[in-house]
Amino acid sequence: TMLALHEWGDPTDPPLLLVHGLTESATAWPDAVARWSSQYHVLAIDQRGHGASPRWDDEALARAPQTMHEDLTRTLALFPEPPVVVAHSLGGLITLRVSVARPELVRALVLEDVARPTGHWAPAPWFVEHQEHFLDAFADGGAAERERMRRETSWTESEIEAWAACKRQIDRRYIREGTYLGEADLVSAINRLRRPTLYLAPRRGEMAPDPSEVSNPLVRLVLLDGVGHCVRRDAPDAYHGLVDPFIEEVFASTSR
């Protein structure tokens, strides 16, 4: 079963693959896509149970971390040349694991506040309740939620609209029953990466690795002040000021 893949830009340009986080989709990167698609062939996946991708069944759900790992590996194997993978949160965790296992499939990584594995196999009841309540607020299209984001954040209108639009396409079985993030130590995975990596996270976030534990010379960890979990939406200028030159440099230094 293949994931839904969305694309923008010229297929002869260098490839970028975008991998979204929980309750998002391939369409939830409008500002970044607008910025990158004139220079790159931009592709974005809907992870399983998100967007237009296949829903979860019992078998896939029983081994959710492995299923998502295999989904992304299959998608990367389609590329004629390895892309730079830009990933957020849950997407960042899956990307990190696949890149450690199959470094030849990726050219470089941009990771944004990677979801931290908890070591628990079932999602915490409080988390499930919170997510269910959150998604319920979009049953009517999420007008109140969109209004709240306009008040509480500096996100652009295009980002707020795209963020809201993908919420009704979520397969909630993953949220209720998914063997969530699986086992793994985030820092040891980071230190095993064999591709250039730019890792952005909020300094005051709960998931960022301790910089003193990141010993991999290929990984540049940047902790930012005044941002939350969605760095690129909270501080697009800071995000692109770091990410865009990194991507350009990667493609400049590796032959086409």
Could you characterize the architecture of this molecule?
The chain is α/β, with parallel strands linked by helices. Helices cover 41% and strands 14% of the residues. It contains eleven helices and seven strands. It has helices spanning 30-36, 58-62, 64-77, 89-101, 125-136, 143-152, 157-165, 172-177, 186-192, 231-234, 236-253; strands spanning 5-8, 15-19, 41-45, 84-88, 108-112, 197-202, 219-224. It has a seven-stranded mixed sheet with strand order 1-3-2-4-5-6-7, with helices on both faces. α1 links the parallel β2 and β3. It is globular. The model has no long low-confidence stretch (mean pLDDT 94).
The total strand number stands at 7
Overall spatial form: globular
Query: Low-confidence stretches at least 5 residues in length (pLDDT < 50)?
Result: none
Helix content: 40-55%
Strand order of the largest sheet: 1-3-2-4-5-6-7
Structural class: alpha/beta
Q: Biggest β-sheet: count, sense, barrel?
A: 7 strands, mixed
Query: What amount of the residues lies in strands?
Result: 5-15%
**Series of H and E elements:** EEHEHHEHEHHHHHEEHH
Distance between the termini: 30 Å
| Overall average residue pLDDT | 94
**What is the helix tally?**
11
Estimated radius of gyration: 17 Å
